[in-house]
Amino acid sequence: MINSTLRKCAFLLASTALATPALAQTGAIDTPAPPKAQVATGDTATESNEIIVTAQKREENLSKVPLSIQAIGTKRLDQLNISNFEQYTKQLPSVSFQTLQPGVTVVYMRGVATGGDGNHSGSLPSVGTYLDEQPVTTIGGTLDVHIYDIARIESLAGPQGTLYGASSQAGTIRIITNKPKLHTTEGRIDVEGNTVAHGGQGGKLEGMINLPIADRIAFRAVGYVQHDAGYIDNVPGSRTYCGTAIRDGDGNIIGCNLDGISVNNNNLVKKNFNDTTTYGGRAALKIDLDDNWTVTPTVLHQNLKSNGNFGYDPALGDLKVDRFFPEVRKDKFTQAALTVEGKIGNFDITYAGAYLDRKTYTTSDYTEYSDAYDRAYSSYGGLANYFYYQDAAGNTIDPRQHITGTDHFKKMSQEFRIASPQDQPFRVIAGAFYQRQSNDILQDYLIDNLGPLLSVNGRPGTLWLTKQKRVDKDYALFGEASFDLAPQFTITAGGRLFKYDNTLFGFAGFGRNPAYFQGADDNPPPNAGGSSRTGVAACLTTSGDTLRNSQLNGTDTTFATGSLAGTPCSNVADFVGGRAVPKRAKGNGFTHRLNMTFRADPNTLLYATWSRGFRPGGINRRVGDPYQPDYLTNYELGVKITAMGGAVHWNTAVYHQIWKKFQFSFLGLNSLTVIQNGRDATINGIESDISYSRGGLTLNAAAAYTNAKTKGNICQGFDADANCTGDTIVAPSGTRLPITPRLKGSATARYSWNVAGATKAHVQVGVAHQSSASTALRTYDPAVRTNPANFLGRLRAYTLVDAATGLDWRSFNVELYVANLFDKRNDLNRSTACSICTRTFIGPGTPRTIGLRAGYKF
Known about the structure:
- By secondary structure, the protein is mainly β.
- It is built from eight helices and 47 strands.
- The chain has a 22-stranded antiparallel barrel. It has a five-stranded mixed sheet with strand order 3-8-9-6-7.
- About 50% of the residues are buried.
């Protein structure tokens, strides 16, 4: 059943008279003369498993590309009913991820993972995401583009630093859309309704139309709206905090009585409160200027709103949680892109430019932080007696926190490249790349009724403020050259010269009562947290000192000029020329790729690759704590075999990777995310996929084994020695890297047959499995003096089974499906709210879902 929000958005579809394209299932890109393997003859054609990809920025048959790549074409995307990131990554065994809720996902490949990534001022991603020719990689959440009318999804494993750059250190995922077709009118419309076990009802409405506008101009548009039902219940809960202090005979506080503020969440109790609604559209023009030059402008817009929390507390029961403040996430993004393709002589010229604008708004319950710190300081009287959570009159107030957060992410990219003729024994591709991405960051930690003098200056009620501007700039020159030493043997060498220039500027921390003076004997509380060192105390003054040091040293206490609007002063900054300026991390370097390919016969390809990827360094919010770039070196052997006249395709790769001084994140003091460089890690693995298609039977299977371990002790502190001992070791040498399971695989079997005339029936069964994985890199946490995994637990192993059956006519299809047939709980994440919090929340995949979908095409 489609709710009112879906009906309001239906105009995105109705206005385009949407319907289904006759050839949408081929998965081929719009080229004048595709390989025979891609050509279909009407609706009854049998598609070969061969797919054309552009992973090396040239059109090539998948089986001829000498790198580890998986591609899911239009036909399989439709058959698997894939519409989002989580669904298609089930089919990609080298990909793992952490997701807190829709739109908040961090992606990893081949075990290059440390967990805890995704902070808006933290490390750049290690896996790149592309939409057609343009990068859409963002910090703090992979862009979850709705999958519909997509030509294919390409997963390129291993460093792609030569052709794709900084954020493709461990691999790249490319979403390739179907392009407008000249001289063709076609369309499709698809509708679905579903019901979720333990939850509510959802559905989606999608459509596409392709229209010729003139002899050399075509238009293609896509519209969609989807409602995902909730399945987590917000159950009744209550809290009582420390009240009166317990004192010893000398009057010293030694404990507290639980007779303080009592609260409950009765007004927020609700079943299935974690629902999501997504709507959006995509439009493209294809303009052939002449026989050699084509211009393709595109625009994409998507709007997502999710309610509630997507994790449950196993202590409360399956799919149950108790939250005390409303939680909402809004994620809206628009991308405008332009691709120009043409020829100068025999050389192919490509320009790809794009501008992405993404705005997010989030409200979050942070009650767990207050719970944990009230317990931690109970021997000091708890929050009521140790801190200063009071109103303007000095009365103790409800200590619970809630967070309002916004991010405004902008990304502009430009790439120009030239490629020599592909049919020559010596081939070259070279280009230049520039990218600027920025993020306006706001995290407002609120306590209702907090006194203004205890709040962040100028923001009554704000206990802690993070307001920063982040800018990351990348410049690169890249190129690859291939030479056929013999008809069967090719060598390829490539490199990328890069330069990065990243800045972070703004404020993070507590406020400071103007009447508080560092070193004075009789002071009011500096802020609600009682901190005299962080926040405003660390802001720069005109003397170049922090405010705290200026008061201690007797220098000028006037704040330095240069600050972001809405902040009291600047403490994430450097002091240059008498003013506060952004903190900067910049550098340059070179990455390479060397590949040798041997074609033993027309159906067998062997290759060896030596490649390197990198990730830039950056700035911590903690003043004076930068982190350095990390590098990934990959040694890989692979084989690709085609057999039985093209019915069977088998690809296998074995690799050894060395990850040097990798960046990793953890929650430090005040639950502030800290990034530091670790030592090294080694990653060994094998990945393989096989497909068979003949008659009405199609089989697909893929699997990966990954063994990723640290090499050398990882120690607390930025200057820690690798030979450290005792409590300074947070992960000893040989610790497995988190998140990535040792084994991940999937398999799908589909059989179709003629029923009567043009009517065909089909049945399909899919299985996805992965083994367990750790949730954290650190095996010892000094903040809680224990192993985080002891309370977080491991990401549990799981096996999911999907099934579907349906009927297909020439213009109409209908299908009944069951996803997660046996209603298993697959952990998408296990998390805790703060550095000393010991309550674990589990983010599960969607429970069993039964749905009916139907489609019409013309």
